[in-house]
Amino acid sequence: MVKVLLGIVLSQAIGLAAPLTAPAMAQKASLSYSELIQKTKKEEVERVEINDIQKTAKVYLKNSARRDANGAKQDQPIEVTLFTDSNTELLTTLQDFKVPVEVKNNAESAAAMGMLMQLLIVMFLIGGLMLILKRSANAPGGPGQAMSFGKSRARFQMDAKTGVMFEDVAGIEEAKEELQEVVTFLKQPEKFTTVGAKIPKGVLLIGPPGTGKTLLAKAIAGEAGVPFFSISGSEFVEMFVGVGASRVRDLFKKAKENAPCIIFIDEIDAVGRQRGVGIGGGNDEREQTLNQMLTEMDGFEGNSGVIVIAATNRADVLDQALLRPGRFDRQINVDLPTFSGRLGILEVHAKTKKIAEGVSMEAIARRTPGFSGADLANLLNEAAILTARRRLEEVTMQEVEDAIDRITIGLSMNPLLDSKKKRMTAYHEVGHALLTTLLPHADDLNKVTIIPRSGGIEGFSQTVPNEDTIDSGLYTRAWMMDKIRVLMGGRAADVEIFGEDEMDSGATSDIKKVTQIARQMVTQLGMSSLGPLALEGAGDMFARGGGGGGQGDYSEAIAEMIDNEVRAIATSCYEDARRMVRENRELMDALVEMLLDRETVEGAEFREMVQVYQERQKVARPVLTNVGR
Ligand code: ADP
Ligand code: MG
Ligand code: ZN
Q1: What number is the average pLDDT over the span 346-375?
Q2: CATH number for the domain running over 420-616
Q3: Whether residue 341 has its Cβ less than 6 Å from ligand 1
Q4: Sorting pLDDT into bands at 50, 70 and 90, what band is 512?
Q5: Ligand 1 nearest-atom number relative to CA 171
Q6: Contacts of 535 (CB under 8 A, 6+ apart)
Q7: CATH (one of 1.10.8.60, 3.40.50.300, 1.10.287.3510, 1.10.10.10) for 350-408
C-alpha cells in the first residue's frame, strides 16, 4: 500500500512539473539529446548549463553555429531534455571537448524548488509511517528502538514531595483507614516481610470524579515521604501503537530506580477496559498498553517497594485481569461525602479562607447534598471570590448562598418586568414551595425566587433535606411520594390557576424527575404493587424510558406493568397536588403577591406566613360553623 501511495505522489509531482517547462520549451528551438552530443563532437557548443531538477540542459552554441536550419540567428540558449540522472555519455563527451559545464541544483524556477520540498516532506512522512508500521509489527514487547521512541516523549510526572497529608483529606474516613496500611508498607516494610507477608502491589480507588482519589494517593506518598509518579490513562492512548506500552515501561523503570515510591495511574479505565469489547472491537494500542502494565506489575518482585495506585470511576468496565490477586487486588470505594463528610471537607478548606463568625459549616453541609469534595472546595473558593468582588473583609453566609446558587442553578439575571409570564412563574414556584411546606415528609423550603437565572430558568423553589434524611441518608416511601407531589406542585398550580391551555414547557424537568423517582420506586426499591423485585440495575434506570426499549431482563408483560405502576404513582401525586392547590387557593394568592413584590422569599419567612394564615383559619372556622348552625 505504501508503495502505491508513493507512486501516486511521484507521478503527481511529475505531472505538476511538466506544465512549467513545456510552454517555455515550445518557444525555443529544441535539440535532442543525441543532437547535442553530435554538436558537442562538432565543437559547436560553447557552454552547457545542466539543470538537475528539471532534467534539462541549456545549450549555448558558439557564434559560428548560431544558426538553425533556416538560417535564422539563434540568440537564445537551446533547451535539451535529459532522460537519466547521470547523463554519463553527455558529460564525458562535454569533458572530452572541453566544454564548460555548469550544473544548477537550485533551478531558476522557484516553483520547482517548492515542489521538491513537498516531495521530500511527503517521502519523509511515508518513511516515518513505514518505520512505525514495521515497529508495531515487531511485537508489543518491543525492541529497544521502540522504547527510545516513547522515551523521548515520556509524559509522566514525578513529585519528590507531594506535601499532602492525610489531614488534608476529609470525609472519607474508611478509605483513609485502609490506606493507612499502605503507608506502613512503604515506611516499614520489614514489619510485614519478617513474618513472610507479601506487600500488595496495587490499590484501586473507585469513585465519582472529585471525591478526592488523586488527593488520597498524594497523601499516601506525603505521609510515607516517598516520591509520587503519576500518569493519566488517557495519556497512554495515543495515536501510535506501541507508544503507550513503552511509556508504561519507562514509568515502571523510573519508579523502580526510585523505590520506595508510589505510581499513580489516573483514569485507568481508559486503558484497562475489558479487552476486545467496545465499539469497533478491540483497540490494539490499548491492549498492548494494558498487557504491558500487567507484565510490569507481575514483573517486580513482591517487595520492591513500588506500590501502584490507580483511580477510576468505572470499575465495572475494567478488565478482569487487572483485578486478579497480585495486581489491583485491593479495591477501595471513595464515595460522595455524606453530611458529616461534607462538614469535614468544608472545615479543611475553610482553614485557608477568612470566614465570618456567623457562618455555619453545618448549614452549608446541609445545603449541599450531592456535592463532591471538589465541588465543596470550589464552592468556598467562589464564595471567597464574591467576597473580594464585593470588597468585604470576610466571607459571610450571603456569599456562600450566592455561590451555591451560582454553582447549582446559574448566574442570576435581571428580574423580569411585571407581566403575565412573571405572574405565572410566581404561581408555579409558590406551588412547589407551598407543597413542600405543607406536606409532612417533604424537605424544608430554603427559599423561593422569581429572579431568573442563566440557562432559561425563570425562578426556582429550593429545598434542603431535613435532619431525618440527612443523617441516615435513607429515604422512605413517604418522603418519595411527598417529593413527587412537590415536584408536581408547579404544574398543578399552572393548571389550577390558568387552565389546561396554559401548561407550558417550564415543568419539563419537574416531570422528568418525577418519572425518575417513580420508576426507581417500582423497578429498584420494590415500593409498588409489583412487589419487592429488583427489575433494573441502578445503571440502566433509563434504558427503557430513554428509548432503548426492551433491554431489561424481564418480559414484555412485566414491562407493561412497570409502566402502569409508574403512571399510577405520577398521576395520583399530580391529583393530590392539584387538590392541595385548590384547597389553598386563597393562601397561594397571598403568597404570590408577596413573591411578586419581593422576588425572593426565604424559607423561614414563607413558613411563618403559611403558619399565620393557618392559625387564622383555625380561629375563623369554629365561628363560621357556629353561624352555620
Ligand atoms: P478525584 O481524583 O477523585 O477526581 P481530586 O482528588 O482530584 O478528585 O479532588 C480535587 C480537589 O477537590 C482536591 O484537590 C481537593 O481540593 C478537593 N477535595 C476532593 N475531595 C476532598 C476530600 N475528601 N477532602 C478534602 N478535599 C477534597
Ligand atoms: Mg483525579
Ligand atoms: Zn417547577
Answers
A1: 92
A2: 1.20.58.760
A3: no
A4: very high
A5: 23
A6: 522, 523, 524, 552, 554, 558, 562
A7: 1.10.8.60
